[in-house]
Structures are given as C-alpha cells and as structure tokens.
Structure to design on (567 residues):
C-alpha cells in the first residue's frame, strides 16, 4: 500500500472535477429575471469578498408550490467552492424549499460520487460543502411566505442505478442480527439521506421469519400519505435489490 | 504540458542525467584504490560549481546544504530591506540568513547593502542564491560568509546542493554521483546565463504583455523593480488565484504552486489583500519555447476571463 500523501486536488472525484471544469449553473438572476418569469428570487450568501472567499446562490422559486425551478451561483473562491456551488444549484433544482433547507453536506458529496464510493470532496475541501449549505439556508429564508402543498409526495430519486442489484451475497447464511445489520447499512446509505430531506426518518422494529421487515416512520413521514405509497414502494425496491428479493416491508402504523 | 513553475523546481537536463554513469560511485575517503580514479571528475565538478558561484579559489566550496546549526541564526524571508535586517537583528544574532531574491515575484534584495549592514554590525551573512544563480553574474564576488544553492533550481537532481564558506575547511565527497550531476548542471547553467538574460526575458515580457492585453485589469507586479529574468507575478482582478491555478492545471498549464506564500508576500509588499489573493506567479526556464508562451497565454486568458464572469456580481 502506498503511503504517499498527494495534494487534495488529485483526490477529487471524477464528477466533481467535471463540475468544476464545466459548471452549468454559473451566472446570476436579478429582479427583472424573476418578475419576467413570475418567480420569487431567493438569494443567499456565505463568506465575504474582503475575506477572500464568498459564494452567492440565486434561486428562482415557484410561488405556487415553493419549488426551485432554476438556480445560479457566483463564487470568488478556490476550486472546491466552485464544485460545491454547482452541486448546491443542481441538487436544489426541482426540490421545494423545505427540502432544499434540509440538504446536507453528505447529500451534496454523494451527488458527486461514482460507483467506487469514497468521498467526492477530500477532507481538506469539505469546508466548501458547509459553506454552500449555509448559503442555501440563507437563500430559502426568503421563501417562508410560500405554502408548500400539504400532500406533497416527494419525487423518488432520479436515476435507476440505485435500484439495481442482485441482493446481498451470502444473505441466506446470515443470522437475524447480522441480517438487520445489513439492512441498517442499506438504510443509512440509500434511504435515510433522502427521506431526511422531507424531515422524515425510518427505523427498524423487527425482522420476522428472516424476511418480513417491520419498520416505523419518524418525523414528517409518520403522518405523510406518501409513506405508505411512493416512499414505501421506493424503500421496498431498494431493499429487494440490495439485500434480498424475498424481503417484504411492513410499516408499523 | 506547459511547465511554468520553474520557481519551485526544474526539470533535470539530459546532460545532468547522462553525466551519472554506473562507474560513478564510492567514497574517496576510504582506502580502496578504485575511487581515486574519480578524483579528476570530482575536481572538475567543484571547478564548475566554483565558477558558477563566482568565488574563484577563495574559501571552501563543498557539496551539501549549508549547516549553520552552531550559530544563532536569524532567517528573514521574502523581500528584505536593510531596515528589516537592522530592526530584526538582536544582540544574540550571529548569522543573518536570507535569499538573494524572492523565488515567487523574482524581486532582488539589495544584497550588497545588506552585506555591508551585517558586517558593520559584526554579524555574518548567509545568502541562498538558488533562484538567482542561473541568471545573475557577480564576477566581482559578493562578500558573504556563506553562500548556498539548490541544484533543483538549475535543472539538476532534487536533493543536490552546494555551499561556499569563507573559512577553509574540508570538502565533502560522500555523494559523488550527486556532485558530478551538480557540476554538470553548474556548467550548463553558466553557459546559459546569457540566454536567461536575453531570450528568456523576451519570452517573459511577451507572456506578460499577452496576459495584460487579454485579461481586463490584469496587472504585472514589480515590473519596475530589479527582478529575476524568468519570474513574473500577475494579479487577475476578480479571479481567485487558487481556482485559476486549478483550472490551468486541468488544462496542462502549471503555474507557481505556492499561492498562499505568494499572497502573503504581496500583502507584505503593500498590495491590496483581495488582489493578492487573485494572483499567481509563473517561472519560465531555458526550455520554455515561444510556442509554449503563446499557448499558455491563450489558455490563461480564456480561463481567467471565464472565472471573472463567475464573480462579476460579487
């Protein structure tokens, strides 16, 4: 194993390098752009140019449902901040401002990961994710007057690659506790980060007969219609693909 | 790849690499007969290094880095004036250690005046001439007590270096391959001094002109100061220096990598802090071609203009 420590640029993920090289969302919106498109302009900033680092995010928000329909950024800062700002804009698109407010560093980092896993932003660069998250929070403050429709069903993740898989190899040989540990890992990686965007959570209650998984919903999921519909179906598909096709998921209501 | 970070380290020349053959090994201090056959090569190497250092036959020139551990040393970095030396010196100071020039901006320190101030105060002086040695002549000699340079700045191998000291002493022959390589690099460096002061200056000036014409507001620092012929430091208003250096590296143009050190040095020289952060330094070499310069200028201008747009509202 090599012990050479490289400069952190060489540890950026491929997707992050592409985003820095060719950001799609750089630019800005002004009041005329917003009123021309009948949208609310929500602007958020982190940092100060006088201190040598600043990011400013411009979100165009639909006033009928709180959804971010377009996003742009301005950055004066190092490469990682350009990548993080691009990620913040891309990941805000199509989400309502409530979900945008709940975006996390981990969620943004994940959006730049390839199949190899590992962090997209090396530790030395991860401050940039915190910075754009703060700028997003600053921006969505301006949206509080917009009501988000109550029965809002979170769109499932785009990209079907997540729902592919042949199950966990050796599943049949595992005991109950080991099986629950495998399920917990998949929940942490592929389900909880996304459910958390809607302020919800998922917990394992029991695994009956080795195949019937009983879960309970926490937070916003506990009284959301989608929790027994689209979200449950999504959880079901992920677990079948990544754990075992025999699994049945039952929410404890 | 267009390598413009010759301030940090340089590519070893083919002559240097070719000078080290499998016959060159051993130590002259041990009683085998074999090594004595290498004495002519050792002497030749030292002659070339002495010639480059411009110290004639005075004092001792030996392979290896300067060792000042037995003294109370005050090291002063960056751009240094005689006033800095006088104000930082204490009654304990035995040796002042500094570089002839900044390797980032290329600005030369007033070394003759500094030597005089030190000697008047009874303090010895060490000068690191790594960045300047390949392009400045000082045949009349600098009256320093210690002079040293690193081979990696003159197209030699990393880890090679030589030191002059005023007092007579023994000469180190423990690393004969390194010494032979450094001798060869010194020879080539002396042969190329005139080129560094003419053609490389022309290319550096062309490079600076291209960038100031292509990037709105771009400013060349210290263009009126006495500075090294291959170095330039440029401010790109509205462009974060680190971001530009990243984008350039992705496109195969390697600028000076010590952006934080450069920023500090520019701020110390009174340059606005945000402009200092928007700056990069570049170092050409005798291997830089006109085509390199033309291509680099185009890539740098395109990248900087794009980054300016990324912060136009800030």
């Amino acid at each position: 194993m090599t012990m050479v420590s490289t400069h952190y640029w060489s540890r950026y993920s491929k997707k992050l390098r592409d985003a820095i090289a060719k950001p799609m969302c750089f630019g800005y919106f002004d009041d005329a752009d917003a009123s021309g498109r009948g949208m609310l302009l929500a602007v958020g900033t982190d940092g100060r140019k006088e201190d040598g680092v600043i990011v400013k995010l411009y979100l165009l928000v639909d006033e009928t449902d709180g959804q971010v329909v377009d996003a742009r950024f301005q950055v004066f800062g190092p490469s990682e901040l350009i990548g993080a700002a691009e990620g913040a804009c891309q990941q805000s698109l199509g989400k309502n401002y409530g979900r945008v407010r709940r975006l996390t560093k981990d969620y943004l980092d994940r959006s730049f990961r390839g199949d190899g896993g590992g962090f997209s932003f090396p530790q030395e660069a991860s401050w940039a994710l915190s910075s754009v998250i703060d700028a997003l929070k600053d921006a969505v403050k301006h949206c509080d007057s917009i009501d988000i429709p109550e029965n809002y069903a979170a769109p499932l993740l785009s990209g079907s690659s997540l729902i592919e898989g042949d199950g966990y190899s050796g599943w049949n040989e595992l005991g109950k506790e080991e099986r629950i540990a495998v399920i917990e890992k998949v929940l942490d990686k592929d389900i909880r980060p996304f459910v958390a965007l809607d302020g919800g959570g998922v917990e394992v209650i029991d695994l009956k007969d080795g195949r019937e998984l009983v879960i309970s919903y926490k937070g916003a999921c506990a009284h959301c219609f989608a929790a027994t519909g689209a979200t449950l179906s999504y959880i079901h598909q992920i677990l079948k693909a990544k754990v075992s096709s025999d699994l049945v998921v039952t929410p404890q209501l | 790849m267009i390598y413009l970070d010759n301030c940090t380290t340089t590519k070893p020349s083919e002559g240097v690499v070719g000078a080290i053959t499998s016959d060159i090994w051993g130590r002259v201090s041990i009683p085998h007969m074999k090594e004595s056959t290498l004495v002519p090569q050792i002497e030749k190497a030292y002659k070339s290094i002495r010639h480059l250092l411009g110290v004639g036959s005075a004092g001792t020139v030996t392979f290896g880095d300067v060792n000042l551990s037995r003294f109370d040393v005050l090291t002063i970095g960056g751009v240094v004036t005689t006033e800095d030396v006088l104000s930082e010196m204490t009654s304990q100071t035995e040796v002042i250690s500094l570089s002839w020039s900044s390797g980032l901006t290329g600005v030369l320190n007033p070394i003759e005046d500094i030597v005089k101030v030190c000697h008047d105060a009874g303090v010895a002086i060490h000068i690191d001439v790594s960045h300047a040695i390949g392009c400045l002549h000082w045949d009349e000699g600098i009256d320093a007590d210690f002079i040293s340079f690193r081979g990696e700045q003159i197209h030699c191998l990393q880890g090679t270096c030589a030191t002059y000291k005023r007092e007579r002493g023994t000469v180190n022959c423990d690393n004969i391959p390194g010494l032979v390589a450094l001798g060869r690099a010194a020879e080539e460096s002396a042969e190329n001094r005139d080129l560094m002061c003419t053609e490389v200056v022309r290319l550096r000036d062309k490079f600076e002109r291209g960038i100031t014409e292509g990037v709105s507001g771009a400013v060349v620092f210290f263009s009126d100061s006495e500075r090294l012929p291959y170095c330039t430091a440029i401010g790109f208003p509205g462009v974060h220096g680190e971001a530009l250096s990243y984008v350039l590296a992705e496109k195969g143009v390697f600028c000076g990598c010590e952006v934080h050190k450069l920023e500090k040095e520019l701020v110390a020289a009174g340059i606005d802090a945000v402009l200092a952060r928007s700056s990069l330094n570049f170092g050409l070499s005798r291997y830089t071609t006109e085509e390199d310069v033309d291509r680099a200028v185009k890539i740098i201008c395109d990248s900087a203009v794009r980054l300016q747009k990324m912060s136009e509202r800030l």
Q: What stands out?
A: Residues 194-308 of chain B form a domain with the Aspartate Aminotransferase, domain 1 fold (CATH 3.90.1150.10). Chain B touches chain A at residues 238, 240, 242-243, 246-247, 249-250, 273-274, 277, 309-314 (CB under 8 Å). Chain B has two domains: 14-191, 194-308. The mean pLDDT of chain B is 94.
